[in-house]
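ENTRY TYPE: paired fold submission
RECORD: A
CONTENT: sequence, then structure tokens
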Amino acid sequence: FPERFISTIEELGGEVVTFLSFPDHHPYRKVDIEMIRKRYAEKSHDMLLTTEKDEMRLLAFPEFHKDLYILKVDMVPDGCVHELMKVIREFLVNG
């Protein structure tokens, strides 16, 4: 969901200058990395930011190590999740 990634960055006070989106579980290839590097070099970017999900695949390319930043997100369940977990526990215990 690229829109959520962008809105999170903006909510944190960041500005998205260039945005590239790849399919979920995308196997990055050298051609992808070259395209990302080219786009990164075209503008005055402060950082290259990605999700934790893509971190490991992108770190396989040493040219990213110094410029790559990871947006780490913690999930905080709301009350609905707690209620769902209660129902699941009751079902598991009582059948």
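RECORD: B
CONTENT: sequence, then structure tokens
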Amino acid sequence: RKYSTIRRYLVTIGVVHRLLSLPDPTNNALLRNSVTKLRLAKKGDAKQAAEFTASHLNILNEKLSSSSSAKDVRDLAIYYVMFECALKRRELKSLSRTQLELVDNKYLVVLNEHKYALSLEGTVAVAKWINMSQNDSQYVFRGIDRHGNIGKNQLDDSSIYRIVRHAGDLIGGDLSFSGQSTRVGAARELAKQGVRVKDIQSFGRWQSIAMPYQYLGNVESSESEMVKFKSIKNWD
């Protein structure tokens, strides 16, 4: 079994016993030592998405901001929006022009009750793409064919995957980004700024605090919160 799977089993056993007012059988020194040894033995068997950082975004801005290629312009705007708004893939796909508000020369991205102010660089990147892609499509980000023609349909998951992976190719250094990388990076950037985990949860629109805990590297807290949330929400 993977270490993460065993940890989930132990956390579940402990929570069930506590709910029944029974002694927690997982709370003993011998078991903790055994689990620690297992964690060290299996270190690296479960890898988290590579972190996409503000430094990565700056590098991409330097490489792409002066480009006139539709793909480069679109991709840079996507990198900014995904990182600065901690966007999920489905939120990126469905993002419409009505969700963009220009206030004091900066774009606000509206996601339900949340509003996210883009940086000046992010605003410039998005504005450049909006100006380049003017048509009657409701979607902000759309596909581009091999001839550079901008379509009307929203991006699909495979396109987003390629766009995010391409960021690693542009930056270099054997980086392998996934669709979660910008959310991991956004959570950690907020933590560096001293933002509380509860507020990071709100910023990233996570239903459970377990995910920001996991992204910040606090695995035990993540698993404990995940079990509590599952028991309340009755997840499958």
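NOTES ON RECORD B: Residues 219-236 have pLDDT under 50 and may be disordered. The two ends are 21 Å apart (CA to CA).
STATUS: closed
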